[in-house]
Amino acid sequence: MTVPRLIGIIFIFICTTIAWAILGTSILVRTDSGYTELNRQVEDLWGSEHFQKAPTVVFKTIEKDGIYEKEVTTPVELESSNIQVSFQLEHRRKGLLWYPTYDVDFDSAYTFKNPLNKSATATVTFFFPASGTIYDAFEFRVGDEKITPNASKGYEGVDAMVEVPAQGEVTIHVAYKSRGLNRWRYSFSEGITTVRNFSLKAVTDFSEYDFPAQTISASSKTPTENGWELEWTFNNLVSDFDIGVQMPTKLNPGPLASRMSYFAPVSLLFFFTTLIVLGAVSGRNLHPMHYFFLGASFFSFHILFAYLVDHLLLELSFVIAALVSMALVATYLVRAAGGRFAIWAGAAQLVFLVLFSYAFFFEGYTGLVITIGAIITLAIMMQLTAKVDWAEVFRKKESTR
User: Fold this and answer.
1) Residue 84, Cα to own-chain centre: how many angstroms?
2) For 34-67, where are the alpha helices, taking DSSP H only?
3) Count of other CB atoms within 10 angstroms of residue 164
4) What class does CATH assign to 45-246?
5) Strand order across the 50-53 sheet
6) Sequence-distant (≥ 6) Cβ neighbours of residue 13 within 8 angstroms
7) How is the chain split into domains, by residue range?
8) What is the pLDDT of residues 88-133, one digit of tens each?
9) What is the C-alpha to C-alpha distance for residues 52 and 56, in angstroms, rounded to an integer?
């Protein structure tokens, strides 16, 4: 391998890297440019993220202040909370992104007491967890009174007023079925509060879940046949954190294709290095134009994959793009350098292009998989070339110029 040829190969590598950077950026732009609009479309069709607040209770009394009367409000905390919630997950795709939508079945029972030594009117407010969605089988009952939602508080919630005797206890029941997106949260209050006799049981039909940032992890986690049973129980909790469940997401085609494109130069660098070593050992040094067409074949994998995922399943798009690229390289090298050289180059392409790219399907393990693959390849190349007299090889190349 002469210095001018090596410079030519480096130039081809740089040009291909620029092409991959442009492709990766264009995929990101395609993905991000429609994200807001697509997210709004999903919310319009299905519903938005749910943020369920606990009901609030405020007692109002009239007291005399000299010759004047004034209204005194006394907020009280809930004495107990018993909540049952279940989730049914369904992923929906818009553009190059998957959105985790879910059905939620919410059923809760609360109790509160009148802390005053006289009868007083309590205003109980239930807040809807989201606007622009549906609430089927909705029930809001305070004591024996069933409350029907109206436009008095708009989209915020529903008020109920009930007369409570001194030291009396009242039960609140809230139930509904609705639909949401991405995550579900339950809030005790807007600030630090005391939560007594609290129990929330969430049942999922999916096995992968997470807890959103600044939320409390479940007290117990029990696997079920289809998912998990998560339970939060507190006797006397003081906290300003919420409870939440993050829905699992699918691998999104757009970000995946973009990450693969940005990483592609590393794969090509390994591949070109392997070809240079194989050429030096076997005496079949390729011309820079050969490297140009091989780099273009590598690039064809990513650009074909990037546009196939708009129309086909992610895995099928990957297989088709990989087969096309490998076929281009194999058939070209058979004619350019012979069958044996093509087999070795095909194995290198399988590792550096296909397997390295497939590692991006496993989020969190990509770097480890690629590192292990690179080390194994290095070990193989070292063993194959351990007895090669590199001085003799390069002397031969010099003499044949």
Assistant:
1) 26
2) 35-45
3) 23
4) mainly beta
5) 50-53, 183-187, 243-246
6) 265, 268, 269, 272, 291, 295
7) 3-33+252-399, 45-246
8) 999 887 767 788 999 999 999 999 999 888 888 899 999 999 887 8
9) 12
